[in-house]
Amino acid sequence: MTRQLRIEFEGAYYHVLSRGNNQSNIFNSNEDRQDFLYILSDMSERFEVEIYAYVLMDNHYHLLLRTMRPNLSKCMQWLGTRYTRRFNLRNLQNGHLFQGRFKSIIVENDAYLMRLSCYIHRNPLRAGIVERLVDYKWSSYQFYAYKKKPPEWLKTGPVFSGLSVTKDKQRAYRNKVQKYSDEKESLWEDVKFGLIYGSQEFLEYIKETYLSLNKDGELPQLNQLLKDEDQQALIEKAARLLNCNIDFFRESRRLLGNNRDKRDAILYFLWKTGRCSNQKIGELFNITYSSVSRRVSNVETQLKRSDDCRIKRIYKKLNEIIKV
């Protein structure tokens, strides 16, 4: 089984998900669910973990949390082992309850907590279990959307801090969750490599600070992180080097002279890395698939010429300074 890449440090935020073995239920009764929340509260205190949001579905759960110590793997293993033991005893079962290792996405900071809490709390709606979230008892939504006092271990402050209103935050949160269905796709655009939820700058920080430079055959996520660089970031880096405006390139219907050569040099540089298709490059530059092919062919023709020309100088500058 492929191992999950774990990045652990003090104060790290995570979205955690775990499913039942072979999609089987991990909660058969309300007693199971209540017991899980009891163990979750114990984990929070024992391992110094702040819990911000949760939802308990029949065959999986979601958690939004922060570890005050670099101990995510340790605390989640403890949670899974203790709950499995009690569940099996109560339900007269034995063996594995959860499907392999839990999944986790590391979250940049509390600015992202609001969107993730909305995603987590809308799970019963997406599953068709209820028509109104207020009717689902086994999530933290009730403590955010209504003035129900949360348990001591559930920390609602960081999520509420993402609201601009100072009065009736519960109503504002309900409105936020209702509107969230339109934002779902944009949320996952910020999840990089299925591992990190945040900005490109945060991704680079994680790579530089916490990841080994050595590849690991059992950690494909690590290998991909070390190999790949976000195409958008690569384009922006090249634009800074050439002192040009990528947005101008995207918005202009026709480029001439120096601007066209700079755009084509960056386009060809990205194509040469082999990291994305012509269609993807076209989307990045707001041109058609066929236009990308023509621009690549044109640049290659000019690079093969014996005489010096502007686009050859531009491409040489990119190739010498930006290492990929």
Gyration radius, rounded: 25 Å
Please list the strands of the largest sheet in the order they lie side by side: 2-3-1-4-6-5
Oligomer: single chain
Q: Under the CATH scheme, which class of the largest domain?
A: Alpha Beta
Terminal residue distance: 31 Å
Overall SS class: alpha+beta
Unreliable spans are 213-219
Mean pLDDT across the residues is: 85
Summarize the helix and strand pattern as letters. Answer: EHEEHEHHHHHHEEHHHHHHHH
- Helical amount among residues, as a percent range? 40-55%
Total strand segments = 6
CATH architecture of the largest domain: 2-Layer Sandwich
Overall, the morphology is elongated
How is the main sheet built? 6 strands, mixed
Structural description of this entry:
It is a single chain. The protein has 324 residues and is an alpha+beta fold. The two termini are 31 Å apart. The chain is elongated. A hairpin with a 3-residue loop joins β5 (191-192) and β6. The protein folds into 2 domains: 12-225, Transposase IS200-like (Alpha-Beta Plaits); 230-321, Chromosomal Replication Initiator Protein Dnaa, Chain: A, CATH 1.10.1750.10. The relative contact order is 0.10. The chain has helices at 30-47, 72-91, 113-121, 123-126, 141-145, 157-160, 169-179, 184-189, 200-210, 220-227, 231-242, 246-251, 257-273, 278-285, 289-304, 310-321; strands at residues 12-19, 49-56, 60-67, 103-107, 191-192, 196-197. A 6-stranded mixed sheet has the order 2-3-1-4-6-5, sandwiched between helices.
